[in-house]
């Protein structure tokens, strides 16, 4: 125990063990720290230089068209934006989906694959709170990804002197829809990444769920609308997060066209499915973290 | 039946369990475990699957017991699991380190996850990494670490928030003899100099004999025994005698003692004598007899000592006699 003082060269003295009597934060602060760390990690901040490339490249690609639109609107003095805020997100959906697919494994696979989840769960945060914070980190990262070009468009609209109250209404609608979409997409990609722990599988799974599935749903919607089977076209929209988003945006008059207008009881169905999907993904995540943590 | 280990004088036990049971269907991981653990280093011994890791996970609140109760640092595991996790550190048996992060960054992050502020976490991380002996390599990604370095990093994260109790699950696993020895010295320091209660598991009994003040032995989920390490290696009543010379002299003494009513058998260069029969059981009688016999034969007595048991014997006995 109190053996001979170590006299290794280079080590001048051993201070002995020092206790920590300082402040210990509550659960809320710990959860907030986890959330902020996760948010930073989603953009590769605080991680290796290589991991910053993908998120920022995608962000740049999604911002570029908005910059062009703003340039055109300001220079030509157009009387309205050529694309609505909500529709801009819809048009760049491939980039948003890729961002989610690429970054969800960072937040949901790593801790499970390397088993560091056990170290987290041996600390004050419980498995449900941990899952919730991880989900929030990705959702906010995604929301930010969509909000940056949206805000740019808004700045452009203000610079070219478009009607402020109209633009603010459209902007707020878009932001609310984007929030719901971010929660949905974060839940889906998070759940997929927490189950398929190999990064490659997780990315492919998320791409299947977001891009391929949306493609299939869009095709069905288009064919059904063409065949005048309006109900089928609207119902098909319940099966992909993107068609839920466009459907709700259409119903709310946020400037997004769908094959068949979503109205009546369908609006409620869309909203309900979106909320149930979010809740289901969250429950799945909590169950998954709890199971791995107890092994 | 209650077993108590540790320095319990006037202090509440660090861990106490009452009838703790965990069954997975037909698999009985832990059965009716009632035990108390005090300060210092307590060894938790058992073969693989004896229930050591299950017990730790239940105490941490990661697993729910099928039955029974337990308290850790005065908190009930079911009602105040979060308070417990604030005050304890845990070093799991398996690998749990992300390979792309440096030990320094990781320990800082883990300290923050235990509730330390940013600057306090950095200071504590530097401190504990120095104590566990990770020097320059702490700034390298942990994926490139040797097993010994990984074990040190795992230990550092368990100590980062200055816990009052640490659970160390097989800390010497996969280490070479020198690293194993370092780790055991470190465990001893944590329990002594650092003043942190330690519950350390191992399937190697000899290891825990060296560093722990108390030992709990589990076998197939049952408590085999729990007591101070000193009691384990207690004097069994048997004696060991060694005389000057070769095996010839040894056998000469053994045969002569056998004629006087003692049960003897050779053990290495020594004669092992079973606990003496009742007529020789009173204090010193057997010692006198051995001295006299050696003198009669003209043999030089080199050693005469009580035969101490080793922890292994608890297992060889099957332990049934103790419970």
Automatic annotation (TrEMBL), chain A:
Keywords: Membrane, Transmembrane, Transmembrane helix
Transmembrane segment boundaries: 56-78, 142-162, 174-195, 201-224, 264-287
Top-level taxon of origin: Bacteria
Protein name listed in UniProt: ABC transporter permease
